[in-house]
Amino acid sequence: MIVLSHQDIIELLPPRTAIDVVADAMAATSRGDVELPLRSIMDAGGPNKMGIMPGMMRTPPCHGIKLVSLFPGNVAAGLSSHQGAMVLFESVNGTAVAMMDGGPLTALRTAAASAVATRSLSRPDSTVLAMIGAGEQARNHLHAICVVRNISELRIASRTEASASAFAEYARRHYPHLTIDFGTDIKNAVAGADIVCTVTSSPVPILKGEWISPGTHLNIVGASIPSRREIDDEMVLRSSVFVDFRRSTFAQAGEIVDMIEAKRIGEQHIRAEIGEVLNGTRTGRTDNSQVTLYRSLGIASQDIACAYHCWEQAKVTGRGVNAPL
C-alpha cells in the first residue's frame, strides 16, 4: 500500500489535471459505468458530521471508500472544514493499494467539478467571477475556474471583511492581472457577474434569485446535506438546473428536496447531469440569456478517479510512503 500525504496530493493532482480526471468520471457516471451507493451521513457531535462514500468504477477498474469529517468550526481555527481519508482498492484481487489524505482530494475534485460545469455551461466569453465565501474552497475554485475561463475580474463576498481581504490578497499574489473587489455585500458582488460560485458553510440561503443577471452561470457548492441550503427558491425557479448525479440530488440537495416536497417543482426541473452534457445525450446552455446552475454535491466516482490518478502517478514518480500489508 502507498500512503500519500496532503502535499503528495497537491503535487500529483494540479487543477488542470484534476479537471480532466473529474470530467471523465462524470461522463462515466452518467453512462452507468459506476456503482454509487448514496453517501451515508452520521452525527459526530454538535454541528459536526461524518460522511461515508463508497463507490466502484469499471474504467479504470477500481473501487474505494472515502471517510470524511465535516467540522464547520475548523475554519475559525485556520483548518479545513473537511478532514478525512481515502482508501483505494484494485479490482482484480480486491487489494487495498493506496491510502491518502481526503482533505485536499475533496477540495481539488470539488473545484474541478465546478470547473467542468463552468466549461460546459457558462458563456465562453465570461470574464467576471463572483466568489461567495473566502476559505479553502474559494481558493481552489479560483484556480480551477481560471483554467477554463479567461477571468479578468474577481469579486469576493465573505462573512467578514477580514476573511474577504485575506482572500483578495491571496488572489493578487497568484493572479496579479485581476481586478479585485471584496467585502461582505453578496448582492453587490453578484450583480452583473458572469460566473458565481457559492462555497460557504451557511445553513440558510444567502443568495437570492432576484439578484442574478440573465446569462449568469452558478456553481452552488457549499451545502452538502439536506438540512443546509445556500440559495432561495427563486434562484432554483429562475435557473436551468444541472447536477452531478440525480439520485444524490433528490436525496441530499436541501433546496431541491424541499421544493419537490412542497410541489413547487418536479424532478423534471433537473435539466441534466453534467455527464450527460459531456456525453452529448442532453443539451447544456441554449442561449446567452439563460441562467444555468450546477448543483454540486460531490460523488464518490470523482474521488475514486482522482485517487486512482494519484496512485498511478505515485508509482511513476516515487512519491508517498510504501506500507507493506
TrEMBL record:
<protein>
    <submittedName>
        <fullName>Ornithine cyclodeaminase</fullName>
    </submittedName>
</protein>
<dbReference type="InterPro" id="IPR023401">
    <property type="entry name" value="ODC_N"/>
</dbReference>
<dbReference type="GO" id="GO:0016491">
    <property type="term" value="F:oxidoreductase activity"/>
</dbReference>
<dbReference type="InterPro" id="IPR036291">
    <property type="entry name" value="NAD(P)-bd_dom_sf"/>
</dbReference>
<dbReference type="InterPro" id="IPR003462">
    <property type="entry name" value="ODC_Mu_crystall"/>
</dbReference>
<dbReference type="GO" id="GO:0005737">
    <property type="term" value="C:cytoplasm"/>
</dbReference>
<dbReference type="Pfam" id="PF02423">
    <property type="entry name" value="OCD_Mu_crystall"/>
</dbReference>
<comment type="similarity">
    <text>Belongs to the ornithine cyclodeaminase/mu-crystallin family.</text>
</comment>
<dbReference type="GO" id="GO:0019752">
    <property type="term" value="P:carboxylic acid metabolic process"/>
</dbReference>
